[in-house]
Amino acid sequence: MSAFYGQPPNTTRDADIIRGTFWVDFRIDTFNASDGIPIAPAPPPGYVHEDRQAAIIGGMVVVLVAIVAPTVARVVARCRSADMRLGMDDWTIMLAATLAAVYPCVQMWMVVQGGGGRHSWENTYEQWEKFVFGLSLCRLLFFVTVGLIKISITLFVRRLADRVSRFWRWAADIFLVTLVLYVLGALFWNSLFCMPPRAWFSRQYAGSLESPPRCSDDMTNARVFSIIHIVQSFLLLGAPIVIVWNVKINTNKKRRLFAIWIAGAVTVLGGVLQQIAFVITNDLFWQYTSILRWTTLDLAMGTLTASLPVLDAYIMGSWHTATSVLGGTSSERRAARLQLGSEPTNVRMDTLASRNRVKSDSDSTQNIFVGGQRVSDEEFPLGDHKTVRVEERRDEEADRGR
Q: In 3D, which of 94, 72, 75 has the Cα closest to residue 85?
């Protein structure tokens, strides 16, 4: 039977886990594994059992729903709408959401099998082995996933930049390259953190080696990727605001897009607070939740922010289609009367219906851009980069009716 964490080992595996912990986590190779881990916390006098396990599992279920629900809704919107098609940003966010969904699942496994949410003195070395494996895997998942989420958002912003200027298009391309490098760096650095790589994921394996494995500095690794993540998030949050501000679109839609980027600001806040909450403790089983709350917020809000523009376009497009079938909103009917004069009602209805039959080839930019004035199909042809925006025409006519 495995000994409790901090106590002298009961088995050979316990001794290997202790040795691997000192070699990898504490970077110390002058010690006696038979003494256990001297710096491990001890229960205070009169200690009464407490744990956070139920709260952690409940929170991870909420996070899982927050990640999966908007992504599934986005894919359903793409498949159901004749005016939308799947683009690279959709495939990227689906991959990111899949990895993000694995994160809370691993966290729940760490609670059940690794003793997460309990104090260290209540867990064994075998539980520590599983707990550390979960932590190492979650770090790899987190940095790769947030990079993929930002790539998906950048692909959407890249199409917005096509409507503004060449400078913003080039800026988006350069930023996209930095994100790809970030994802590759996070993947390889966190996979090859130690040599041999398995030593980073298994303290028992590390301790069974004849000599200490060569590992990078743990704190430096986390700091570097976290700071880069925050800086990239700030840039990604600010660029769309500037771009949308300079593009002539309907005021209400502009407000909705700004609200979406405000939701993205919560993601940035999560990254900043993650840095502030960075703690060093000898009771990691208990204290790791101070970081967990911010990493899960980052993943959930990032996934939601990436899907909101598509959901907004689908919802508003469905709303305008429904109102057009019923004869349009009151403002649209007034605008139609002003523009068409005494033209029969059935002709006006045919005009509205024909507008709704226009098909779009765009990705996430559906129902967003038309410019500041009415344009003909010849001036603004359908295609991957130029798309007739039915909703904006109706909004302009409604504004004239007012």
A: 75
